[in-house]
Structure formats: structure tokens, C-alpha cells
Amino acid sequence: MSLFKARDWWSTILGEKEEFDQGCMCVADVDNSGSGQDKIIVGSYMGYLRIFNPHPVKPGDGVQPEDLLLEVQLREPILQVEVGKFVSGTEGLHLAVLHCRKLCVYAVSGTLGNVEHGNQYQIKLMYEHNLQRTACNMTYGPFGGVKGRDLICIQSMDGMLMLFEQESYAFGRFLPGFLLPGPLTYSSRTDSFITVSSCRQVESYKYQVLAFATDADERQETEQQKLSSGKKLVVDWVLNIGEQALDICVVSFNQAVSSVFVLGERNFFCLKDNGQIRFMKKLDYSPSCFIPYCSVKEGTINTLIGNHSKMLNVYQDVTLKWATQLPHIPVSVKVANLQGLKGVIVTLSDNGHLQCSYLGTDPSLFQAPQVDSREINYEEFNAEMKKLQKIIKEATKTQGILLPFLEVKAEAVPSVTVKVLRVTAQKPNLAVCVQAPLAVTCDQFVFDDLEPDSSETVVLSVFLKGNCSPSELEGNCVVSYNTPTGIPKVAQCNFRLPLRLICFPAQPSKAANHKLTIDTNKPPISFLTIFPGRFLNMSVDDQANVLGFEFLTGSKTTLLASKTSQRYRIQSDQLEDLWLITEELTLRLREHFKKQNCKDFACTFSGSIPLQEYFELIDRHFELRLNAEKFQELLSERAVQFRAIERRLLTRFKDKTPAPLQHLDTLLEGTFREVIALADAAEENQANMFQAFTKLKSATHLVIMLISLWQKLSTDQVAILEATFLPLAEDTQELGWEETVDAAISYLLRTCLSKSSKEQALTLSSQLCMPKDTSRLKKNITLFCDRLAKGGRLSLSTESTTQQAAVMPGKT
């Protein structure tokens, strides 16, 4: 966005490995020379205090020895430097230096030199205040309307304003509702202090309110700054800006009204004296510092705002007038008058890059030589362009490719291989994710830089963690890396874990509570063909059409293939256990016929949708959610009771006259045991709720598959169905599965599955809250299946879908 770079007038690097921040620089005629020329005062966290008077021979010259007027090392880190009338009896300017536990005021003076080295400068300590609290920042001004002198106000890290009337300490006041210190400034027009609290509010406090509030003035002098001193204040006005502030500045120029400028993290505010917003500007970058200054246009104020992109923007009110590039990220910016040049921009970075610059351009004396004119051969240019485009296309076709491959073995340990094709990956990071209750021994891997055509292999183990079967056997690998140019990229791949991870072959069972029949359009395939290898080591050869599975949790599932019809039956005592076996069967059947180049293979379902059994799982999960709420309420009540008994006991123990406890200790112990018992019960309920949600997800996957096979849904329609019934990866009390699915189904019933325009006009609730029961959800799921049976089609488009007749299978 910058048209020109900031023109370097003078610059230098301060020290080595020193750190600087917002308050470490100020500009003023600190030596009272009377010439109107500003000096640059810089203090560092290493304790170095430097004063510069730049006067380059020509713009862009580096620092000269005589530019550094003074350099002295103080014993403590310098948090902030300010220049004002801080010494009584004189209106001369003095330098105030704020340390963590000390405030020092110095007089800067110079003597004429008799040799070529120039004048000599020194500082003299006028007075100092030892602080009982750790300081954060300070501000100064004619507090209370005093004439000819400036008072100092220091904000401590624990929220106390300490005011000093030059050589003497005045009083201290606590800020109400304080958590963390914010920027602080003083407005002489309203005689008030303005800061931004941790509540993200701009707050103003009158000096008179601070002065008349009672404090520890009646105490001894040595106790005036102790922790017991101070009193909470009443705020004058408050403005909520909704973000933390980086800096505050109060300006009042002749042609502009007095304004309070606040630089936030994403916005720039200009306020009136009473806290009302004059204007605000939303910033599309992350600012680092700012300074308002006088504008040439009447009624407006110019503002310099530096950001973390090394840019310095010039605004006239809210209008961007100029943008310039800096060589560093500024943490402090000032406007100074140096060597008769008015409006020099002084910037300081956090690592000590101090620069004085100006805006504009320098005239260029270079003249391009005249080029010999010649005729243009367009055919030659076109041929060269096609050749270059072909080279670019080939280079970008595989550029930036980093592919993770995962090799899954049922008998051995799974391994992940990351292969790199024609790209250099810097510090690639591999993350392996699986669905709970599955877990991996290590899910994060960091490699060294990978060169093109290289690979890295890591070995990991996946195991079942918990006493319930997972709802999915799929996982993914994600590799994040940076290209040599610094561009971050991500590559990922999905994988499927073997069925042997969660179950093993077992003796088939004849009886079962739940049975499903999957129809196909091809003759049945022997299980010896689609389940090869050692998976059938416990099966009998003459029973190739029957296969039993026993999960690690103990439940069993049986798979049968019909000898006469094109059907497969899956049966189990638990509805959720049917899902993984049914999915594995359909996947292996499709893979088998795909290898035989059979493209018309299809699976269908014409049985009954097990909605009643599905609703039982929903009720079980919802019941555990209700129990979790009850446990939370009981824990809250017992905790309140426990704290009340503790307060009573502390009152008894602090009483100077002993009094009987009246069995409060027994009551405290009993309440403590109840809290521990309730916490254990809530933890056990949470584990049961996780298992119930896993079972519910397995049953939901099964219902989605049966509906898709029954209605022959397309891939996009199956995706809508999955987004409707499986919107959450995790189930919480604040946002649960029941209310989320109910809202999604209600939306589909009101849009693509609606019967009339009257249903489309119904408005849905904008808030998701936990329902009282599951009757509405079960009713909507039943109505959802009925609408699909009567020809409804899933679509997210606004156009009405064509209704097609279908046969609804009977529900159990």
C-alpha cells in the first residue's frame, strides 16, 4: 500500500541486545537551551539513558560522536522517561525517569567545550522517591489547575495511583475493579485521569474526586504507601470499546477541539471530553504505536499510526492521507523539531533501532539512455511466451507437494511414511488423529528439513482406550510445513484402521435381538474371498457363508450370506454393534467387484428402519445429560454450603474470646465428604455419557447408511444427511446432540421437505438450548422419514425439488 519509503534523515542502533518499549522515548528541549530545538531522550530496560541531538551533514548520514550528548548507565531498568516542570522554585524543564521501584528527577545541563569534541553534558539528581509498589507507567500535568509546575501520577501493577507533588508524596488511590494495568494519561482541560481497564472500558477519574477521597493521611508518614493505604474511587464516565488499548493521548490544538485518542488492538477512537465518540476508524492491520499532531486543515487532527507490518500511516481524522514504509517495527513514535527542520518523525523499535525520517521523495538525477528503436517480431515473442508458459506449468504442477502415506497392517505395528516430491519442506510437523475411544501412542512428530525426493517413516501403535467400541475406524494424517520462501502449507491424507483392531473371529451365534438384511444385485460372495488372510483362522471351511465377530468389549455380531438369494444378514444383541460390521461388509463388497471391473454393483435396503431401538439410545444419552445437570446443581449447592461453614469457622477462630464451635467442624467434614462423593458420581456419569454418545454415534451412522441405501441417495444427499444427524464431534452440556440435530431436522422439514408454503413461513428459534425431553426430536425424526418415503428429496438449494414416489418400509 506504501507508495514511498520513509526517507532516512538520521539513524543509529542503540547498544547490543537491549530492549525498548512504548514509554522509553520522549523528545523535548531537556537542557533548556532556549533555541526551540528538541533532543531525543531514550531509556532502555538494561538501564542505559541516552540523549541525542542529531545534526547530519546530509540526509541519511549515520550517527556522529557529537550527536550523543549523554550516555549513562543507571542501576535499574528504565520503564518510562518524561520531561516537564518537576522541580519546585523553577519553571525549567527536568527529566523524570521511572524505574520499577523508584522515581528519579534529573536536571540536564551542558557546559561549553574549549576543544573540538564539543560541549559537555551531565545530569544531576534533584530528588527521588522510593516506591513501595511496583510501578507500571506514569503521567504528568498541572493537576488541580496549578500554575507553573507539573505533578506526577504513577500507576502501580496492583492498580494504585500514587500522586507526587514534586519533592513530596501526596496520596494514593486504588482503581475500582482493577485486574491489570492499562495506559494512563491526564487531561488538563477536564482535570481528570483517563485509562483503559481490564474490562475493556475507557474510564475517567476527576482529580478532585481523588483528592477529596479519604486516605491514610492521618497515618504515620512511613505507612502512607503500604498495602493498606488507598481507597476505591467513583468513576466520572465510562465508555466500552470492546478491546484492549495500546495507548491513550489527549490533544488540544488551537484550531481543533480537545480530544481523547485511544489506540485499540483493531480500532482507533477519538472521544470528546465527556466520553462520547467523535469518530472511530477500523484498522485492517495490527497497530503498534501512534501519536496525534497538529493538522494544517482547520477542525481536523492528523495522526501517525505504526503497525507490525513496518508501515507508518498518516490519517486526517479517519481519512488515510499517506502510507510509508519503515525499516523496522516501531514501538514508539514522536514528532520533533530538529536542527530547524519541523515535523521530523522519530521512531524507535524494540531492539533499539532509532531513526529520524521525513516523508516524500528525493529527486532522481538519473536519465535512462535512449534505446535504439527496432521492429517487434511478434511471432518470435509468441513462441517464447508459449515456451515459458509450458515451463511454468510443468514447474507448478507438482511444486509444493508433500504427501503423507499411511501403511496399516493388521498383524504388525502401523507405520506412517511421509514422502516429499520436488519441494523442500522446512521443519515439517506430522499429526496423527483417530477417533476416541481409539488412541495412539504418539500423535505428534517433528522432522528435520526434508529435501526433494526424500522420505521419513515413523512407527506408531493404535489401541482401544475404554470399554466401548469406536464409532469410526477412520483417521487422518496432517503434515504442516513451510516452503523455503516462508509460505506455510498443509498436506493431509485419510486412512482406515483394520477391523482386527477392535474385534476378533468368534463362534457365530444363532439368536440375536437385532437383525438387518442388505440386498445386492450380484450373487453372494464367499467370506473366504472378501475376508482373506488370517482373519478366518477360527472359522470352519464348510461354513464359508457364516462369520462370527466378538468385540473387545465382549459383545458378538454374526454375518451370514444367503446361499439362494443375493442377500447378507447382520445380527447382534446390540444395535450399535451392527454398524462397523455392516460398513466393513459393504466396503469389501464394493472393493471386490471393483477389482473385477463390475461397475453396476449396488447395495439396497428394503427392511424396516430400527427407529424404536434408535430412540432408546437417544433417551439413554439424554438421561445422562439430565443427570449431569443435576450433579452440577448439587455440587454448586454443596460448594456454597462448604464456603459458608468455612467463613463461620474462620470468624470463630479469629475471635479473641473463645466460643464453642457448635459442631461446625463436624458439619464441615460432612459437607466435604458430600462434595467428594458428588464429584466422583459426576465423573462416573461423565464417563457413562461419553460411552452413550459413542454408541449413539454408531447407531446414527447405521441409520444414515440404511436411509441412503433405502432411498438410493446421491453422494451430496448423504453429505446433507451426515451433517444433519452428526453435527458435533464432541458432546457438551452447553451444546448437545439432541438440540443441534432437532434444529437441523426442523430446518430441512421447513425447506426442502416441506409440504406447503405455510410450513416454509414458520420461523425457527434462534437459540439452541437443552430441551426438557426428547419427544419433539423423536417426532421430527419420524416425520423426516415419512417425508422421504413420500418423495421428498434432500437439497440445500432454494429451488423446489421434484417430488418422486417411493415405498416407505415399515418401522418397528
UniProtKB/TrEMBL annotation:
<dbReference type="GO" id="GO:0060271">
    <property type="term" value="P:cilium assembly"/>
</dbReference>
<feature type="domain" description="PTHB1 N-terminal">
    <location>
        <begin position="1"/>
        <end position="363"/>
    </location>
</feature>
<protein>
    <submittedName>
        <fullName>Bardet-Biedl syndrome 9</fullName>
    </submittedName>
</protein>
<dbReference type="Pfam" id="PF23338">
    <property type="entry name" value="PTHB1_hp"/>
</dbReference>
<feature type="coiled-coil region">
    <location>
        <begin position="371"/>
        <end position="398"/>
    </location>
</feature>
<dbReference type="GO" id="GO:0034464">
    <property type="term" value="C:BBSome"/>
</dbReference>
<dbReference type="InterPro" id="IPR055362">
    <property type="entry name" value="PTHB1_pf_dom"/>
</dbReference>
<feature type="domain" description="PTHB1 C-terminal helix bundle">
    <location>
        <begin position="713"/>
        <end position="788"/>
    </location>
</feature>
<dbReference type="Pfam" id="PF23339">
    <property type="entry name" value="PTHB1_CtH"/>
</dbReference>
<dbReference type="InterPro" id="IPR028074">
    <property type="entry name" value="PHTB1_GAE_dom"/>
</dbReference>
<dbReference type="InterPro" id="IPR028073">
    <property type="entry name" value="PHTB1_N_dom"/>
</dbReference>
<dbReference type="InterPro" id="IPR055363">
    <property type="entry name" value="PTHB1_hp_dom"/>
</dbReference>
<dbReference type="Pfam" id="PF14727">
    <property type="entry name" value="PHTB1_N"/>
</dbReference>
<feature type="domain" description="PTHB1 GAE">
    <location>
        <begin position="411"/>
        <end position="495"/>
    </location>
</feature>
<feature type="domain" description="PTHB1 platform">
    <location>
        <begin position="498"/>
        <end position="606"/>
    </location>
</feature>
<keyword id="KW-0175">Coiled coil</keyword>
<dbReference type="Pfam" id="PF14728">
    <property type="entry name" value="PTHB1_GAE"/>
</dbReference>
<dbReference type="Pfam" id="PF23337">
    <property type="entry name" value="PTHB1_pf"/>
</dbReference>
<dbReference type="GO" id="GO:0016020">
    <property type="term" value="C:membrane"/>
</dbReference>
<dbReference type="InterPro" id="IPR055364">
    <property type="entry name" value="PTHB1_CtH_dom"/>
</dbReference>
<feature type="domain" description="PTHB1 hairpin">
    <location>
        <begin position="608"/>
        <end position="711"/>
    </location>
</feature>
<dbReference type="InterPro" id="IPR026511">
    <property type="entry name" value="PTHB1"/>
</dbReference>
